[in-house]
Design a protein that fits this description.
The protein is an alpha/beta fold. The protein contains 10 helices and 8 strands. 51% of the residues lie in helices and 14% in strands. Bound molecules: zinc ion (ZN).
Length: 272
């Protein structure tokens, strides 16, 4: 039988085959790595959500000088400070940013460092669209971060470093923090330690109750909690969450904004 190619033709065919095989090999390796990374990301997000959801009955808390200064501000205007904890998450944060953009509202995001590492583009988008970044925790695992005052200071420093590495020093002041579960959940030693390290903290005096139960809360529950906790208050620091599991928070956000506007509130960022 005659060979298909002779001499140069055979070499050319061989080169083509080698190239095709190498391309397929690298392509499949790329697909494998992407699948593996996505899987690891999903596991990490699941772990964080499980941890966040295990903390029930978050109290309404207004504690500390910074919080009180904002709440008792003599400004005659009604002001709402929208604050989102535990993000960024790939499913909720982009939608929240879209809603805020449509309404021309700037909000404060209390970041989990681990989530920032997994979603750096979302952090950059938050900054680009004029929102404020603040520190919540690097890992948000309560029994690790609250082991000692030093443990929490180290945890927030780690979160600070991650945020700076993503958005740069010029876009991030890095002084403002929010204690996971609120400042009431830690002793005075913790509050003193973060003050000594140069941070200020802020709690909240209104909420939608999206972290009050381990399950996802229905829209009407969240909306009722908003109405009750903002009632008769002229300056409201509202606790919301943009963690991956808080889908209903994202769903009711347009209504939350409409309600607050109707009640005469304007929106502002937490002063640092
Ligand atoms: Zn949190």
């Amino acid at each position: 039988m005659k060979p298909l190619f002779k001499g140069k033709g055979q070499i050319l065919l061989l080169i083509i085959i080698i190239n095709v095989v190498t391309f397929c090999l690298f392509y499949n390796l790329g697909v494998y790595h992407r699948m593996k990374n996505n899987y690891i990301k999903k596991i990490e997000i699941k772990k964080l959500n499980k941890e966040a959801e295990s903390r029930k009955n978050i109290q309404l808390v207004n504690n500390g000088d910074e919080t009180n200064a904002i709440i008792n501000n003599k400004d005659q205007r009604k002001i709402a400070y929208l604050t989102f904890d535990d993000g960024p998450s790939p499913n909720n944060t982009p939608k929240i940013l879209d809603i805020l953009k449509i309404n021309n509202i700037k909000a404060t995001f209390f970041i989990i460092g681990k989530n920032a590492e997994m979603n750096p583009e979302l952090l950059k988008r938050e900054v680009k669209e004029g929102h404020e970044l603040a520190i919540h925790s690097y890992c948000h695992i309560i029994n690790i971060i609250y082991k000692s005052p030093d443990a929490y200071v180290n945890d927030i420093k780690r979160c600070f470093d991650i945020i700076v590495s993503i958005v740069g020093k010029n876009s991030f002041n890095g002084k403002l923090i929010r204690f996971p579960d609120g400042s009431f959940s830690v002793s005075k030693q913790f509050r003193n330690a973060i003050a000594k390290a140069g941070y200020i903290y802020v709690d909240w005096n209104a909420l939608v109750g999206d972290a009050e139960k381990p399950t996802m809360m229905p829209d009407n529950y969240l909306f009722d909690r908003l109405k009750t906790t903002t009632h008769n208050k002229s300056h409201v620091i509202i606790l919301l969450h943009d963690a991956a599991s808080k889908k209903t928070t994202t769903e009711i956000l347009p209504e939350v904004i409409s309600y607050l506007k109707e009640k005469g509130y304007t929106f502002d960022l937490i002063p640092e």
